[in-house]
Amino acid sequence: MSKRTVAGRVLLAGLAVLVAGCTSAGPGPVQKSGDPVAPTAQAGVLRVLAGSELQDMAPVLEEARKATGVSVQFAWTGSLDGADAVSSGRADGKYDAVWFPSDHYLRLDDGGKAKLATESPVMVSPVAVGVRTSVLGELGWGDGSKVTWAQVADAASAGKLSYGMSDPTRSNSGFSALVAVASAFSGANSALTDADVQKATPSLKQFFAGQKLTSGSSGWLAQAYGRAEPGRIGALVNYESVLLSMNRTLPADAQLTVVRPTDGVVSADYPLALLASAGQRERESFQRLTAYLLKEDVQRKISETTLRRPVTPGVAPAAGLPADRRRELPFPGSKAVADGLLASYQNELRRPSRTVYVLDTSGSMSGGRLASLKSAMARLTGSDDSRGTTRFRDREEVTLISFASKVKSTKTHSVPAQDSKAELASIDRDVQALGADGGTAVYSSLEEAYRVIDRQQSTAKDDRFTSIVLMTDGESNEGASADDFKSFYQGLPSSGRAVPVFPILFGDAAKGQLQGIADVTGGKLFDGTGSLEGAFEEIRGYQ
Amino acid sequence: MLAALVLLGGVLFAVLHRAPADDGGITVVKGVIGSEKREFFADPEVVAELKAQHLRVDAITTGSWQMADADLSGNDFAFPASLSPAEEIRAAHKVSGEPVRPFYSPLVVIAHAPVAEVLRSNGLAARAESGVWTFKMDQYLDVVRRDRNWSDLKDVAGHAELAGAVYVTTTDPATSSSGALHLAEVSYLANERRVVSDDAGVGRVRDLVRKVTAMQGDQKTSSDGPFKDFLSNVGSPLVLVYESQVAALTAQGKPTGDLVVLYPDTTVSSDHTMVGLTDNGKKLADLLRDDAKLRALAVRYGFRPQGDPGAFGAALNAKAGPVFASDLSAAGIQQAPVPAVKVLNQLVAAAKGK
Predict the structure, then answer these.
(1) Whole-model pTM above 0.95?
(2) Of A500, A494, A493, which is closest to residue A518 (Cα–Cα)?
(3) Exposed end of chain B (fewer CB within 10 Å): N or C?
(4) Strand A116-121 vs strand B239-242: parallel, antiparallel, or unpaired?
(5) Predicted ipTM?
């Protein structure tokens, strides 16, 4: 596991939301990195580090508060980052419990396992493929009840099926899907081994040829599916419950048919787990809350509200949840196999990325701010990263654009498929050479980034995951205006409009401008005011 | 004491009834219990009957295998889920007298009815005229040794969920009693029906205990997890649980769908063994064993009272749901002895590839 030098950075990437005030399961507020959530313990409050999927439990938890006197105060993070936070002890004393879709990854670490006092599964949802109903017909998959992962891979490699899936190094749904397809393609009859992963590699590459959207969070993935032009994204890999919930608001032509491949699925069972470090009072709160959540009427309400499956015997699943059984594929039994699978995903299996960093090096960045930028970027060129969460991946094309009053420099690096060290060091040298002076021309510089991407795409004639990261500490005060940029963006070809900008709020940046850029381009705003490193690392999940 | 327990995995405090200061005549008996007995001790009728006997139990729950290492000072009793840790606790605390086993529960394999039929047609299970199902352990271990998959068996057509290797899903033996007892059962059979007692024995069974564990991949830490998954219809086809987990549902009139209870023909029982550390603890142990009301209430939680062999069958056979074996030995179910804790730890280490 990568050693994290800044304590709590990832752990704290999220936003504390008191359940009472959290009613929306929408895309959520700005991703704030380094926000010190988790105040000291207080009576009747259970501080829970959780997956953002659990936002949909807000109505149930509000009733739980009335019935038990226990309110849940969430801090959100991805499942795998959450597991790291628990294993490393960074959750001790800050949280009383953790609640992720699954504890599989956490249990692979003996140290992490020992941090949990007890856990209780609360509900279940298998990871499935939601296929746009029209695409289902084109593929001849009938009602979707007989589809295998191999058929999905064949359709993907033939260019007939494009899909979105969250980043397996961040999110349990992506990781579960990766385990499921690796099991299916290797023919592994029991838990995956390294040899199975090797065997599955060619088929996995075919499967991932169809992945057109990636994401660090399932909420953004759903949004991106919604805004993609018709026909570009044919399917989404996600929990059955998320896919069915999306159908509640998707227009008729974008409705998803949930396919649970017949060769097996990996399910999430949402264990609510008490940390061993929790105090006596919090233990009692945990007990009361758990007992409440397992009551028959509450389980019924959970299933109807969230479309997950109940775990208490005798409680029927909500209408629309299919009853036919699927094989539950075993999860790898060792961290080495799991991390090996994740590293292969990042460096070998997935479609390569094209990432453009548009970096503000105006005068106001001089001193500490530039030093923060250099150190945050340096982490992306480091090698201490066993599952490939952070660093630039093998085969990734990285362009650094530094700007002030205008673009100062544009430098493109291609990380080779093997022996990437020298190229990573070269990227780092370019970053460390940056100097700060001049004004701030945000929009003109972004336009230049899109032009660079257009040239790269037409030269390489490839189809990579492409995204722009914009880091600025100020307000655009030179060059193109917001309206200019909007017209420029609208005039781009569809390949250009598909490229999102992920702006990072830093220093005295104008939040409104940056949110506008995220909205126009289908990106997402990240808050780097607490930790710039944390923001850069979060964004890796979207690249 | 608490601080020491907090350091252990699997610890859960269950403050069952916080008492005002003692009113006269009621003795508070403090102890540690396995979590599977939490609901029994919290049952209002159990509380009332103990009160009628002038006792009130104040217990916290913890993993059975961890009680032996814990500092138990200040407690009147320890109530693990099996005999071996009870023996360790007795030795560590120099407790004289026999340990009391008020009730017990055998390990069983659960499956959906159509899957049980597939097992039967392949000689892996049998159904007696009484309706009691048995699971053929030797045949099962042979299937594991030979890497047989569900697709190698007959009559699996139409069962999409029956794919991949045939194995029984258990909990993590390093943290959970049922997973460890499964290793006891497997090692006994693999050691030519002799309890493993030395390094040579561990060596003989090493490959098989490693195999039955490794093929499962990540294992859950408590038997609650796989059982709930099964009931949610998403779990593995064959899951090892305590009979009491299923029997409690049946005794309380809760539906279990088409769940079938298969008794391994050689199984291990979870001997809920009470170690009285003080006179009050011993008094509680005797009450749990001898009090007719408490015995009947234990059946409500799926346990078999030692002192009343007929009570379990009498209560369960009248209920709708899976068929339970009223009398284990009459049903041809044998008990595998459990190795000493030290050997069991070696088996767990072998199973985990350590």
Answers:
(1) no
(2) A500
(3) C
(4) unpaired
(5) 0.84
